[in-house]
Design a protein that fits this description.
Keywords: DNA-binding, Transcription, Transcription regulation. One of its GO terms (biological process) is lysine biosynthetic process via diaminopimelate. GO terms for molecular function: DNA-binding transcription factor activity; sequence-specific DNA binding. Belongs to the LysR transcriptional regulatory family. The protein is α/β, with parallel strands linked by helices. It has 3 domains: about 80 residues, Winged helix-like DNA-binding domain superfamily/Winged helix DNA-binding domain (Arc Repressor Mutant, subunit A, Orthogonal Bundle), CATH 1.10.10; about 100 residues, Periplasmic binding protein-like II (D-Maltodextrin-Binding Protein, domain 2); about 100 residues, Periplasmic binding protein-like II (D-Maltodextrin-Binding Protein, domain 2). The protein is built from 11 helices and 12 strands. The strands form 4 sheets. It has a 5-stranded mixed beta sheet with strand order 4-3-5-12-6, with helices on both faces. A 3-stranded antiparallel beta sheet has the order 10-7-11, with helices on one face. Strands 1-2 form a two-stranded antiparallel ribbon. Helix 6 packs across helix 11. It is globular.
Length: about 300
Amino acid sequence: MPAGLKHKHLEAFRAVMKAGSITGAAKLLRMTQPGVSKLLTQAEQLCEFPLFERRQGRIAPTSRALLLFEETERLFVGLDDISRIVDRLRENEPHRAIIASIPMLAQEVLPDAVSEWLRNPANSRIHVTTRDAGGVMAVVSARRADLGVAKAMDKVPGIRSLQLVRCRVLCALPPGHPLCEKEVITPADLDGQPYIALSRHEGLQTELDFLFERYKVRPVEVVECPLIVGAGAMALAGVGITFQDALSARSLVPRGLVLRPFEPTVTFDYRAFWVEEVQTRFDRAQFLYLLRETAQRILAETDPQSPVSQTG
């Protein structure tokens, strides 16, 4: 943090970014507009670069301001979490276990597992926070979550993991697409087709890219959608073809999304992650058992042919 830049400056900056105007920021902070403007001017002087461009009475963040906001948001989210913990301790509320999850698993697997978990009144209460796979690993590594659930990632020292479920990858087609007539989709079928790419950041698309290269096919990538459920929804809307698994497409198939087996076989693995030596009141082993049983049950119901792995 630049010398002299204080919490109040970052708070004013954050409020302006969130509200989109000094007027809105003043309302959020319960301050006067001149007071917010003064803090913003001081922040820019201390940073020694402009945070906002003034255009016809409006302000727009600079590229540096966007980067600063991304970093400061992490700080404030952490402070907000601490404030909530203090409130719970003050009120003697029951212990809460923090589960960091990718959005798809939070939507499709966690609800049933948490419902079963909370049948026992003695169990910890649950707080779910959603991140991309890298974000899940980050909060687990920083010990800001008791457990993380995400796509399988490279091993990280000090982090243990357990495979929850292995899903075969399925080709997702818009209703009425000519390829719906085929029983099995191959790479050659995708050559030249409008295609919705999955997350390269999380590695979902990377393996598929290698496959396309190996078979010398070139789908026409029209969208990259890191959220796998979002990619499926786009396919349902007719944007193009994409890939799903039985978990991610669970809520889309009843709405008309068409799934077909894809060969050669590709799989997505989902795992739970936690810090090895951390002791907690949270009964992690019992929750892992419920989580794994739930994921494998859902997969067996939605895609009986998927290779459910029992390895750790």
